[in-house]
Amino acid sequence: MIPAGLSLDQAPPIDVPLRFFLTAPWFLVLAAALSLWQGPAIFASRWLPATLALTHLLVLGFMAQVMLGALLQMLPVVVGVVVPRPRLTATLIHLPLTLGALALAAAFLSGVPAWFQVAWWLLGLGFGVALFAVHLALWRAPVAGGTVIALRCALAALLVTVGLGLLLGGFFGWGWRLPVVAVTYLHAAWGLIGWTVLLVAGVAYQVVPMFQITPPYPRWFVRGFAPLMAALLVAWSAFAFGGLETAATLTSAALAGGVALFALTTLYLLGQRRRKIGDPTLMYWRTGMGSLLAGAVLWLLGLSVPALGRLPQFELLLGILPIFGFAVAAINGMLYKIVPFLAWFHLQAQLFQRAKVPTMKQLLPDAAIRRQWWAYLGALLLSLAATVSPAVLTYLAALTLAATGVWLGVNLAGVWRIYRRTLREADP
Amino acid sequence: MSEPDISDILVDGRGLEPPEPMEKVLAALDQLKPGQRVRFLIHRQPYPLYDLLRRYCYRYETAAVADGSYEILISGP
Questions:
Q1: What DSSP line would sit under A265-301, residue for residue?
Q2: Are A83 and A351 a contacting pair, CB within 8 Å?
Q3: Which of A7, A221, A387, B42 could form a disulfide with B13 if both were Cys (CB 3.0 to 4.6 A apart)?
Q4: Who has greater pLDDT, A426 or A167?
Q5: Is the pLDDT of residue A81 over 80?
Q6: Chain A residue with minimal CA distance to B31?
Q7: pLDDT at A5 over 50
Q8: Mean pLDDT in chain A?
Q9: Contact A236, A251 (CB under 8 A)
Q10: Which residue from A7, A78, A348 is facing B52, i.e. has the nearest CB?
Q11: Contact call for residues A8 and A360 (beta carbons, < 8 A)
């Protein structure tokens, strides 16, 4: 029989996740516009206000946007728990997050404390609601498998990331006194490793075997990876803050090793897939995991050759590889699985045995996905190259980033258009 | 779990890429005659399918199989 607690209508209305997914691509376009406007200076250092604005357009406007939307969608389907009041919850996350990302970019660019204050309240509200709703659902989960464990660790890390972000926002907005450089390092590490890598890992345990038809991740890995990484992050934070340099360096190396292990395991599994025809999202997974591995190796190199770690390009590459190379790729690939599936599923639910429902391939043809991937790959390679010679390549990188963002937005909006048209034609 | 019946329509969705298993089940339900059932084998809990089945008032029973997959017996509304 069905386990208790799974008998409610599981899937939230389609507009709950889709509002996040259809908004996100346009933040890639905004990030591109900002790079075009700022020009090569944006690649001078990660600490420049414009670079921080660009980073937050990507991590808040694109990444967090899709990750939170996907969680609202995924929790009911994969874990079997229902997020309370899905439409209201989604609005209270989506709207403040979108406006907050814009306000924070404006704050960095203008340096005006009032903008930081606006962003602080908006992002505090959006993430507050998200953390409350998703934590509530996740701790009620009837099954505590590897994915739930990883999602719990990722959500705890998001809590830390947002907390530290709000502290930094307080520094810029109200002049709170804090060791701003140290807090920024912690904020970035918890956000990229704790929240992003662990969330992608938790999702990958499900979707890599499911969609790429690979063997499952090893059991020890599924259960142990996320808690171990979370524990390492706690230890690293304590050592770094307590001034225990050797211990902090060793823990940092262990974190990089863990990240590399996840990337290698996933690449290995992708190599073992049973389907011979290459799935177009496979390229996104491979690019993402390749970038993550490259980031981890670079990080280890930086730890062993300190002179390398002091180059400005080093920190920029350590930002571009995990953010644009890994997270944006993984998310972009997943969007192509989630959005057509949602449209197809909701059409089935409404038109079952009444009208013909388009297949997933009709909703979003493979060719459209492949072409956008080439634009994405171009944007990634040009951005990496632009850290070395920004004068020539910044504009080219920005233009290809704009192209990949527009293309993604158009592809996803196309699915929505067919969805609406199919419903209209079935019920004239 | 009820006993297998020779008249059951068997749908094996194990190892197929989503949403192919669900497409196959829905196609089988389309052909279901009164009193007949669909016997659906799948490698994971098909939560989204349960939504559809409930919405259209199908009755279903799920049993976990020893190899980690599930067997779902669906009968008409």
A1: HHHHHHHT-S--SPPHHHHHHHHHHHHHHHHHHHHHH
A2: no
A3: B42
A4: A167
A5: no
A6: A353
A7: no
A8: 92
A9: yes
A10: A348
A11: no
- Joined tokens for residue A364: 């979003």
Among B44, B48, B62, whose Cβ lies nearest the Cβ of A1?
B62
Q: Where are the alpha helices (DSSP H) in A305-389?
A: 306-309, 312-320, 328-351, 360-363, 366-386
Q: A4: pLDDT confidence band, cut at 50, 70 and 90?
A: very low
DSSP label at B62?
A: E
Q: Which residues in chain A have their CB less than 8 angstroms from residue B55's CB?
A: 9, 349, 352
Match 């599930």 to its residue by tokens.
Answer: B70
Q: How far apart are CA A423 and CA A236, in angstroms?
A: 53
B 38-67: CB under 8 A from A: 44-45, 47-48, 50-52, 54-56, 61-63
Distance separating alpha carbons of residues A306 and A293, to the nearest angstrom: 20
- State the amino acid at position A35 in one-letter form: S
d(CA A112, CA B67): 61
| Contact present, A109 and A49 (Cβ < 8 Å) | yes
**What is the rounded distance in angstroms from the CA atom of residue A319 to the CA atom of residue A324?**
8
C-alpha distances in Å from residue A105, one per residue of A26, A50, A255, A321, A387: 14, 8, 30, 21, 21
Question: Which residue do the tokens 């390492």 mark?
Answer: A232
What is d(CA A203, CA A148) in angstroms, rounded to the nearest whole number? Answer: 9
Structure tokens at B13: 């969705």
For residue B10, the tally of other CB atoms under 10 A from its CB is 10
Tens of pLDDT, residue by residue over A182-196, are 999 999 999 999 999
Q: Going from the N-terminus, what domains does chain A have, and what CATH number goes with each?
A: 15-421 (1.20.210.10)
> Is the bond into B19 cis (omega within 30 degrees of 0)?
yes
- Give the pTM: 0.90
Q: What's the rounded Cα separation, in Å, for the pair A251 and B51?
A: 46
Burial class (CB in 10 A: 0-12, 13-18, 19+), A250: middle
Angstrom distance (rounded) from CA A61 to CA A53? 11
- Six-digit token string for A212: 């790429």
| In the predicted structure, residue A76 carries a pLDDT above the cut 50 | yes
Give the start-to-end residue ranges of the domains of chain B. 14-42+59-77
Q: What is the pLDDT of residue B2?
A: 62
- Give the tokens for residue A25: 């691509």
Helices (H) and strands (E) in chain A, counts: 18, 0
Per-residue pLDDT reduced to its tens digit, A368-410: 999 999 999 999 999 999 999 999 899 999 999 999 999 999 9
Provide the residue type at A149 as one letter: I
- For residue A248 the two structure tokens come to 């902090």
